[in-house]
């Protein structure tokens, strides 16, 4: 089979090489999937620069989500059969013509779901659902701030918050994304390059503050988000995009310092808190939780409540272009690459 290996850290143009390798073999609880398409995730950009600690060493196969047909089932797999079309989570290994997934996180989907939508459901929507339903349990009328609201996870969080009838504040970095947020129903879109998001929100919400902040960026924005929370507030830290940029060691130390310093007594007296979420960790330790979330997300998509937006579809020969687009911060929704 062919697989797109990450062979060199750095710019996308020189990072990947298509190699001919043996098909992987599924274990007893796994399925082998003939991959129709795989999705890109922002963590892939960090991995390409050698900055993603959990990624395998070079030469490595990235890829968290695939859509395709079940080619082989392990002996203990009862819920899927050969030929089923599935969307699946792969803990790396997705950038290949064949990929392995645990059967719990490979879910049957109808032919009518496009490849881009299918992979968005597996990663961005499962993440957003886990954050908004399981971790923060957002409620009607709660004031919710979503950073990078035009991105893959951001788009999903916006749809979930609107479905729960929350009041949504969303940040982004361009006029095109502002328009996208408006179309998606964000009540208060904020271009953080034009306006200080914290001051803007403070002037809108006053002293009672926000109820929930979803932060995939880290750095100063995390501390600012924490300060914006009112009593009962929950801040979820689920990414550190700000640390991705090429900075000196002093720049990085400054970034880390800017996250702020927190103490449980402070959480107690102010009645608000911070929680970190790493979906890979949960998938490794508690895969059944992810499997359940995935089923619920697919159900909500089938009911028309969740509508993933595919912001770019590329062929495997354009993998570098797809990576560069996601890195450019111009993408909206999910980016997908087809074999
Ligand atoms: N914890 C988990 O388990 C988990 C799972 C999935 C995803 N994530 C995280 O969720 C985030 C979104 O992932 P995605 O794949 O859906 O990507 P995405 O949101 O489609 O793209 C990332 C967006 O983040 C913003 N951004 C990028 N670099 C930045 C920087 N240096 N400073 C501030 N903002 C920056 C940009 O939005 P603007 O330019 O509009 O600000 C960019 O479009 C990523 O941080 C990813 O690592 C975490």
TrEMBL record:
<dbReference type="InterPro" id="IPR011032">
    <property type="entry name" value="GroES-like_sf"/>
</dbReference>
<dbReference type="InterPro" id="IPR051397">
    <property type="entry name" value="Zn-ADH-like_protein"/>
</dbReference>
<dbReference type="InterPro" id="IPR036291">
    <property type="entry name" value="NAD(P)-bd_dom_sf"/>
</dbReference>
<feature type="domain" description="Enoyl reductase (ER)">
    <location>
        <begin position="10"/>
        <end position="337"/>
    </location>
</feature>
<dbReference type="Pfam" id="PF00107">
    <property type="entry name" value="ADH_zinc_N"/>
</dbReference>
<dbReference type="InterPro" id="IPR013154">
    <property type="entry name" value="ADH-like_N"/>
</dbReference>
<dbReference type="Pfam" id="PF08240">
    <property type="entry name" value="ADH_N"/>
</dbReference>
<dbReference type="InterPro" id="IPR013149">
    <property type="entry name" value="ADH-like_C"/>
</dbReference>
<dbReference type="InterPro" id="IPR020843">
    <property type="entry name" value="ER"/>
</dbReference>
<protein>
    <submittedName>
        <fullName>Zinc-binding dehydrogenase</fullName>
    </submittedName>
</protein>
């Amino acid at each position: 089979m062919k697989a797109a290996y990450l062979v060199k850290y750095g710019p996308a143009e020189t990072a990947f090489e298509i190699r001919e390798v043996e098909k992987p073999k599924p274990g007893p609880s796994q399925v082998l999937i003939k991959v129709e398409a795989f999705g890109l995730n922002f963590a892939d950009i960090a991995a390409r620069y050698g900055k993603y600690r959990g990624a395998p060493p070079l030469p490595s196969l990235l890829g968290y989500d695939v859509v395709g047909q079940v080619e082989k089932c392990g002996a203990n797999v009862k819920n899927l059969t050969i030929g089923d079309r599935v969307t699946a989570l792969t803990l790396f290994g997705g950038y290949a013509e064949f990929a392995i997934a645990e059967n719990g996180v490979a879910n049957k989907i109808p032919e009518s779901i496009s490849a881009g939508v299918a992979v968005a459901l597996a990663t961005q929507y499962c993440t957003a659902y886990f954050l908004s339903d399981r971790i923060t349990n957002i409620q009607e009328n709660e004031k919710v701030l979503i950073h990078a609201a035009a991105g893959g996870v951001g788009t999903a969080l916006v749809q979930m918050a609107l479905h729960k009838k929350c009041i949504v504040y969303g940040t982004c970095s361009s006029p095109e994304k502002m328009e996208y947020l408006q179309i998606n129903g964000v009540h208060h879109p904020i271009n953080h390059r034009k306006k200080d998001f914290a001051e803007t929100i403070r002037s809108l919400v006053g002293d009672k503050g926000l109820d929930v902040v979803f932060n995939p960026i880290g750095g100063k924005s995390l501390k600012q988000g924490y300060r914006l929370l009112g009593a009962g507030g929950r801040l979820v830290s689920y990414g550190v995009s700000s640390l991705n940029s090429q900075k000196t060691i002093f720049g990085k130390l400054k970034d880390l310092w800017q996250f702020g310093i927190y103490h449980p007594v402070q959480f107690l007296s102010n009645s608000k808190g911070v929680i970190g979420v790493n979906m890979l960790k949960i998938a490794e330790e508690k895969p059944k939780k992810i499997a359940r979330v995935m089923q619920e997300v697919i159900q909500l998509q089938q009911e028309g409540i969740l509508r993933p937006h595919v912001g770019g579809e590329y062929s495997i020969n354009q993998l570098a272009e797809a990576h560069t687009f996601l890195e450019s911060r111009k993408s909206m929704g999910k980016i997908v690459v087809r074999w």
